[in-house]
Amino acid sequence: MPPILQVRQLYKFFDKRQGAAPVLRDVNFSVEPGEFVCIMGPSGSGKSTLLHMLSGLDAPTAGSIELAGRNLGEMSDGDRTLLRRAQIGYVFQFFNLMPNLNLLENVGLPLAIQGRHPGDHTATIRGLLSRLGLEGKEHQFPHQLSGGEMQRTSIARALAGGQPLLLCDEPTGNLSQKAGAEVMAFLRQICDQDHKTVVLVTHNPRDATFADRVLFLVDGALDQEHALHGPKLAVERIHEQLAALHI
Ligand SMILES: Nc1ncnc2c1ncn2[C@@H]1O[C@H](COP(=O)(O)OP(=O)(O)OP(=O)(O)O)[C@@H](O)[C@H]1O
Ligand SMILES: [Mg+2]
């Protein structure tokens, strides 16, 4: 099977002035279907910028991204949006739930956006909420939930549309240690059992232990040479690598 993501010679400049440093430079990597890839880097190293570009929400200054075999830079805005909706579930750092919709409605939103009727998929949505330990909370609103519950709802929403690729931006950044570990175990499970592909950015070494492969963003470049390969990486190994790379 071809890679679900193929990134080649990717550059991103926000500051267009001559001599300004790019946020990302010469980033090259690919992700195979079913893989769980973690990208680590310090705050401000371009992790969110990279995820935005992988999903086609932002365009690179140079280089190419192929998603499911299609070059995002060669597509019309409309086609790129359709491809994103078909391929990608996005888990945001700050949940991005709709405050005036209950859990069932929040999780059904991607189906509505895909032009399907969420009411026809209630069983699927309830099943997802139940797998995420949110049974009985279907009619609650986001402000009635804990941070961990909000993040699990946002993961249910990212899965509801059935997209094969999950992009997660520091999904445990605002959670307690325990809630964060539960979220990570669930993401590992959907990779193993549901054959989803997961690309997750984090600066939490504990999160990275769940990955099949850990890549490090150093000074805007993705350091392939020092990538770590799982499964079941030891947290000490990740700490060592971060120290060696001065992250
Ligand atoms: N829209 C933008 N316009 C200008 N500069 C931006 C924009 N978005 C991001 N940047 C800059 O790009 C750099 C990388 O930002 P990004 O949000 O990708 O970092 P990050 O690795 O996700 O950080 P964090 O771990 O804090 O979330 C930062 O210096 C940021 O100020
Ligand atoms: Mg970020």
CATH topology, by name, is Rossmann fold
Q: Give the averaged pLDDT, no decimals.
A: 94
Q: Estimate the global geometry from the Cα principal axes.
A: globular
CATH architecture heading: 3-Layer(aba) Sandwich
Q: State the helical fraction.
A: 25-40%
Tell me about this structure.
The protein is of the alpha/beta class. The protein has a single domain, classed as P-loop containing nucleotide triphosphate hydrolases (Rossmann fold), CATH 3.40.50.300. It is built from eight helices and ten strands. The protein has a six-stranded mixed β-sheet with strand order 6-7-8-3-9-10, with helices on both faces. Strands 2-1-4-5 form a four-stranded antiparallel β-sheet, covered by helices on one side. A hairpin with a 2-residue loop joins β4 (62-67) and β5 (70-71). α4 (122-131) crosses α5 (147-160). The radius of gyration is 18 Å and the shape is globular. The chain starts with a strand and ends with a helix. Bound molecules: adenosine-5'-triphosphate and magnesium ion.
Layout of strands and helices, then pairs:
Layout: E1 5-12, E2 24-31, E3 36-40, H1 47-54, E4 62-67, E5 70-71, H2 77-87, E6 88-91, H3 103-113, H4 122-131, H5 147-160, E7 165-169, H6 177-194, E8 197-202, H7 205-208, E9 213-218, E10 221-229, H8 235-244
